[in-house]
């Protein structure tokens, strides 16, 4: 059984979808803890499912590195097989990424490598593209630059604003995330192989 810790910053809607999937006895992964970098509304979802939570407030640390050290200690308590970033609005420090790589994944509301960063939905609208998408990636030291595990296109409608487009991307993100976690748990995705440097 794959054990999973989820890190959030906000409402945790993607996380709730994963919790609902993992509540099925037939699902091959279990969420063992939910952490956040601030007081997050998503903790309520964890409580609904009886999942322990932990808080590592970013503003209480003198540096990103110091915050990452405490976050690493909290994760070590649960020692999950996989860490899922689900709306965590912080870049993890390289030391934490290196310690757990390649077993950290993230969802992103764009068809990477298109529109990386914190404003992927807005950037797609500004660019005037006819389609964007959703991606699930392995986290590396860059900004949404890790190996892609799954992605799917989502059309941009003429009437879309940032809210409506994001609301149509979210269900795709959730479905991709649940499928990727399932495939990691069953061995259909080998993270070590996916993240291995490519040789020619």
Automatic annotation (TrEMBL):
UniProt GO MF annotations: phosphoribosylglycinamide formyltransferase activity
Domain Formyl transferase N-terminal, residue spans: 4-181
InterPro entries for this protein: Formyl_transf_N, Formyl_transf_N_sf, GART, GART_AS
Marked site positions, Raises pKa of active site His: 144
Pathway: Purine metabolism; IMP biosynthesis via de novo pathway; N(2)-formyl-N(1)-(5-phospho-D-ribosyl)glycinamide from N(1)-(5-phospho-D-ribosyl)glycinamide (10-formyl THF route): step 1/1
Gene Ontology, cellular component aspect: cytosol
Active site (UniProt): 108 (proton donor)
Catalytic activity: N(1)-(5-phospho-beta-D-ribosyl)glycinamide + (6R)-10-formyltetrahydrofolate = N(2)-formyl-N(1)-(5-phospho-beta-D-ribosyl)glycinamide + (6S)-5,6,7,8-tetrahydrofolate + H(+)
UniProt-listed Enzyme Commission number(s): 2.1.2.2
Keyword presence, Endoplasmic reticulum: no
Keywords from the UniProt entry: Purine biosynthesis, Transferase
GO biological process: one example: 'de novo' IMP biosynthetic process
Record-listed N(1)-(5-phospho-beta-D-ribosyl)glycinamide binding positions: 12-14
One of the Pfam families matching this protein, by short name: Formyl_trans_N
CDD domains: FMT_core_GART
Binding site for (6R)-10-formyltetrahydrofolate: 64, 89-92, 106
Similarity section: Belongs to the GART family.
Role this protein plays: Catalyzes the transfer of a formyl group from 10-formyltetrahydrofolate to 5-phospho-ribosyl-glycinamide (GAR), producing 5-phospho-ribosyl-N-formylglycinamide (FGAR) and tetrahydrofolate.
Protein name stated in the entry: Phosphoribosylglycinamide formyltransferase
Organism: Microbacterium thalassium
Gene label: purN
């Amino acid at each position: 059984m794959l054990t999973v810790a989820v890190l959030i910053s906000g409402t945790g809607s993607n996380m709730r979808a994963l919790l609902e999937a993992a509540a099925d006895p037939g699902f091959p992964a279990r969420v063992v803890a939910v952490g956040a970098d601030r007081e997050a509304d998503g903790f309520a979802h964890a409580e609904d499912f009886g999942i322990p939570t932990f808080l590592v407030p970013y503003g209480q640390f003198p540096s990103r590195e110091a915050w990452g050290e405490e976050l690493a200690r909290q994760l070590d308590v649960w020692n999950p097989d996989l860490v899922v970033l689900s709306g965590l609005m912080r870049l993890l420090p390289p030391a934490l990424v290196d310690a757990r790589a390649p077993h950290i994944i993230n969802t992103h509301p764009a068809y990477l490598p298109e529109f990386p960063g914190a404003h992927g939905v807005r950037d797609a609208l500004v660019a005037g593209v006819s389609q964007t998408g959703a991606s699930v990636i392995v986290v590396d030291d860059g900004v949404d630059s890790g190996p892609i595990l799954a992605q799917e296109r989502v059309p941009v409608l003429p009437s879309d604003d940032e809210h409506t487009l994001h609301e149509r991307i979210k269900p795709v993100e959730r479905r991709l995330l649940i499928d990727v976690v399932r495939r990691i748990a069953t061995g259909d995705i080998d993270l070590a192989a996916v993240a291995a440097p490519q040789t020619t």
